[in-house]
Design goal:
The protein has a six-stranded parallel β-sheet, sandwiched between helices. The protein is 40% helix and 15% strand. It has six helices and six strands. It is globular and about 35 Å long. The relative contact order is 0.22. With 166 residues, it is an alpha/beta fold. It has one domain: Rossmann fold, CATH 3.40.50.
Length: 166
């Protein structure tokens, strides 16, 4: 179960307050690449600003936790008016622990939102936060990612992971 997300959705804007309340979540830790933007992209995904505002209105705390360097993450954080943790070392639990603490939240009411099973989901499970897996905005071109994505497909079949409809 370490690789099975609590919830699987297509894109970040598919997450709504109802999903979060059902899971007992009041805090979201957000990945950047292929979650808020394309891999190494500079533009935010469509609808992010409106989604962030809905989350804030619903009382959801938000913070970016990324494995990318701070120089990569900071421009997104500034545009979204969010705090962030760069070099989060996912799947190690330290970034998740720091993120929940920075938000003043308990791990059991915190969730990681990301696109990778072997970093975001595994790390979330190891750190005791809930996990929301998204379909990558755009598939990466590097060989290491192509291999990981093939392994993820095997995990999907094993755990019968499908996008949530509802």
């Amino acid at each position: 179960m370490l690789l099975k997300p609590h919830l699987k959705l297509k894109k970040i804007t598919d997450i709504d307050i109802k999903h979060l309340k059902t899971l007992g979540i009041d805090t979201l830790l957000l990945d950047v690449d292929n979650t808020l933007s394309t891999d190494h992209g500079k533009e935010l995904a469509h609808g992010i600003f409106e989604w962030i505002e809905k989350m804030r209105e619903g009382g959801i705390k938000l913070l970016i936790v990324s494995n990318a360097k701070s120089e990569r993450v900071k421009p997104f954080a500034e545009r979204l008016k969010l705090d962030f943790i760069g070099l989060g070392l996912k799947p190690l639990p330290f970034g998740y622990f720091r993120g929940a603490k920075k938000c003043g939240s308990k791990r059991k009411t915190t969730a990681i939102v990301g696109d990778q099973i072997f970093t975001d989901i595994l790390g979330g499970r190891l750190s005791g936060v809930k996990t929301i897996l998204l379909t990558p905005i755009e598939l990466e071109k590097q060989l290491s990612f192509k291999i990981r994505r093939k392994l993820e497909k095997a995990v999907f079949k094993l755990h019968k992971i499908k996008d949530f409809k509802g």
